[in-house]
């Protein structure tokens, strides 16, 4: 799903070069010929834009596995990430989702009968990391590669669909120590739920694991903690000196002064959805918001998430070219970094020879202007206007402090789920013995 790489295979392969190409999208071969041949791929540069992996190189291997992390390092990521979940026995692990149905083979395992809906987390059936111990997971389940565009029949790397090994946070930290990285990012979500319902303090678990791995004293690699919950970052700020990244997980057009003031109290940077920078309408970009400018003017670097190679993830304005999309965010919107499933694509972009040409930048490397393609469509055929996007306000950011971890005397979620499961099984047995007539 990388058209630029396809063109380079014909013109920059070390063996031969074709004399020309026939294409529906001239911008991509122009990029390839003009800016991406003979790149110095061994060059190390951890400057802007920062390349942050999303679950490792999860476009190539199952998310958060040893293979995905090694590929992200090999592909030139500046920062690799671990989204932390807790197991039944309280072990912090790297797993892209708290719901094991998303990225493991749990649906085909003996644990499939433990499915439940937990509305505090999501409204779909799941078997959750806290339902199983670490041994249950590592001995009985296999990773499963993500397929975000299965409706388009776009399967990622089928040969390695279930390849790789799961990693605990401690394994991840051991792995990263000797790697050429500028830092690591640890994401923490659902901390309030885990404290109230399961009796675990996620913040404390992460800090203790980092301390045990020596990261409390390490300066070579910075530690970034990301969360969409201000309460989580406030607690980390009180107890550590790590860089804190506030994730805005809703689409907004700008940040009100009250929200900027609130974020500045606990965060060092912000991650935002692509649609909050270039809002889309029926897969066309419509305009560029003021969000990046407002955040940066407040002294907050901005990272855009989540970039992918598949054409189905990109607005039409980028002509099915992931490189053109990155260019729009970096050169057009001025983001400080990208969070991506495909670090190799971002790394190649970072090395392109047209990167710092200023006024001499060729026209084919000029960032796409949001809304231009939409205006080419005749008025009757244009999609209806979108409703206005909201501002991020101070009340959107503010949260009460994290609750303390539940005491042992309180009934646990796990015990309640087991009781509910027992009731369901009993009812099923009764119905089997005495069918309704």
TrEMBL record:
A single GO molecular function term of this UniProt record: glycerophosphodiester phosphodiesterase activity
Keyword GTP-binding: no
Keyword Glycoprotein: yes
Catalytic activity entry: a sn-glycero-3-phosphodiester + H2O = an alcohol + sn-glycerol 3-phosphate + H(+)
Name the UniProt record assigns to this protein: glycerophosphodiester phosphodiesterase
Sequence similarity: Belongs to the glycerophosphoryl diester phosphodiesterase family.
PANTHER family: GLYCEROPHOSPHODIESTER PHOSPHODIESTERASE GDPD5-RELATED (PTHR43620:SF7), GLYCEROPHOSPHORYL DIESTER PHOSPHODIESTERASE (PTHR43620)
Biological process (GO), any one: lipid metabolic process
Keywords in alphabetical order: Glycerol metabolism, Glycoprotein, Hydrolase, Signal
Record lineage: Eukaryota, Viridiplantae, Streptophyta, Embryophyta, Tracheophyta
Gene3D superfamilies: Phosphatidylinositol (PI) phosphodiesterase
EC number: 3.1.4.46
Database matches in Pfam families: GDPD (PF03009)
Residues in GP-PDE domain copies: 49-350
Enzyme type, top EC level: hydrolase
């Amino acid at each position: 799903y990388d058209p630029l790489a396809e063109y380079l295979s014909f013109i920059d392969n070390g063996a031969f070069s074709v004399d020309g190409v026939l294409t529906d999208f001239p911008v991509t071969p122009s990029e390839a010929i003009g800016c991406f041949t003979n790149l110095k791929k061994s060059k190390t540069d951890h400057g802007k834009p920062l390349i942050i992996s999303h679950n490792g190189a999860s476009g190539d291997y199952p998310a958060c596995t040893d293979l995905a992390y090694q590929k992200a390092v090999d592909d030139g990521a500046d920062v690799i990430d671990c989204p932390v979940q807790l197991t039944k026995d309280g072990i912090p692990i790297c797993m892209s989702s708290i719901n094991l149905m998303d990225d493991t083979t749990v649906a085909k395992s003996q644990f499939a009968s433990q499915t439940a809906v937990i509305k505090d987390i999501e409204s779909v059936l799941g078997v959750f990391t806290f339902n199983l111990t670490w041994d249950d997971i590592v001995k009985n389940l296999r990773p499963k590669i993500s397929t975000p565009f299965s409706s388009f029949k776009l399967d990622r790397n089928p040969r390695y669909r279930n390849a790789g090994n799961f990693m605990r946070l401690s394994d991840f930290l051991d792995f990263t120590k000797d790697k050429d990285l500028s830092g690591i990012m640890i994401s923490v979500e659902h901390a309030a739920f885990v404290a109230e319902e399961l009796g675990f303090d996620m913040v404390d678990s992460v800090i203790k694991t980092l301390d045990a791995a020596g990261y409390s004293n390490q300066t070579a690699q910075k530690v970034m903690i990301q969360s969409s919950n201000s309460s989580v970052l406030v607690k980390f700020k009180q107890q550590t000196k790590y860089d804190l990244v506030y994730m805005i997980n809703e689409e907004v057009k700008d940040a009100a002064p009250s929200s900027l003031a609130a974020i500045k109290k606990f965060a060092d940077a912000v991650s935002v959805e692509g649609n909050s920078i270039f809002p889309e309408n029926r897969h066309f970009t419509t305009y560029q918001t003021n969000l990046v400018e407002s955040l940066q003017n407040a002294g907050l670097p901005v990272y855009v998430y989540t970039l992918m190679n598949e054409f189905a993830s990109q607005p039409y304005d980028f002509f099915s070219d992931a490189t053109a999309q990155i260019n729009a965010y970096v050169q057009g919107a001025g983001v400080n970094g990208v969070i991506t499933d495909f670090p190799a694509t971002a790394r190649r972009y970072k090395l392109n020879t047209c990167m710092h040409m200023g006024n001499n930048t060729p026209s084919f490397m000029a960032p796409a202007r949001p809304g231009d393609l939409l205006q080419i469509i005749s008025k009757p055929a244009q999609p209806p206007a979108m409703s206005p996007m909201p501002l991020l306000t101070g009340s959107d950011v503010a949260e009460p402090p994290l609750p303390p971890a539940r005491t042992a005397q309180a009934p646990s979620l796990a015990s309640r789920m087991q009781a509910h499961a027992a009731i369901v099984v009993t009812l099923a047995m009764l119905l089997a013995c005495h069918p309704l007539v």
